[in-house]
Design a protein that fits this description.
2 copies of one chain form a homodimer.
Chain A lengths: L9 E2 H8 L3 H9 L6 E2 L5 E3 L1 H15 L4 H30 L4
The first copy, chain A, binds a DNA duplex through α2.
DNA sequence: CGTGTAAGGAATTCTGACACG
DNA sequence: CGTGTAAGGAATTCTGACACG
């Protein structure tokens, strides 16, 4: 389930280069709950490629003038929709294979 | 052809954590031509997940007592074998589909 | 609200060298 | 040969704050 894409290994300077966003912006989006880096033992933020992609989407929305609060709502909504789809898929698979929990 | 696995974005401290190797060892293996990190504008080494995997293999070999020169030869040999296979595959595909260059 | 910046400290990374074996 | 370490400098990252709007 977990892959290179989700492994948090990229420091903020590299993420800044990769996304074109300032470190200030990246930290601010975290403050607003849009992105969730992990921390090394020493407290340095580390991001995944997935995080980089999310940041690029955030950058697009921000350019359109969408506020961080709106962006967060959208992201939560998309997650809900995705969860619902997964639940349905799970239900169908269970019905088909009569899997036990 | 290129993916997250090959993107050089991980700094040496993280690589050290990921592999359990000291930074000294990692730099030394580069010196001996076993690993090829890129550099950021500022000169900091950056590695890919593929590099991390290569380093783990190197660590195994070293534990077996294999010297860096031997390890390098082995790696070059494996690459040659892989290249030969790819050439053959390419040849068969070309013959089958009569592809032009 | 979103972002820039100066501030000071702590941790990171780099290179070249000496050490040991 | 392979790896540790101390050395000094340069670049990174962190936090909390002030600024502007």
């Amino acid at each position: 389930m977990s892959s290179y894409k989700d492994k948090k290994v990229i420091t903020i300077g590299i993420v800044s280069e990769l996304t074109g966003l300032s470190e200030r912006k990246i930290r601010y989006y975290e403050e607003r709950g849009l992105i969730f880096p992990e921390r090394t033992k020493r407290g340095t933020r580390v991001y995944s490629f997935m995080d980089v992609e999310i940041l690029l989407k955030i950058a697009d929305k921000r350019e359109e003038g969408v506020q961080t609060g709106e962006i967060k709502k959208d992201m939560i909504n998309e997650k809900k929709k995705s969860d619902v789809r997964n639940q349905m898929l799970r239900g169908q698979l269970n019905a088909h294979f009569k899997m036990r929990k």
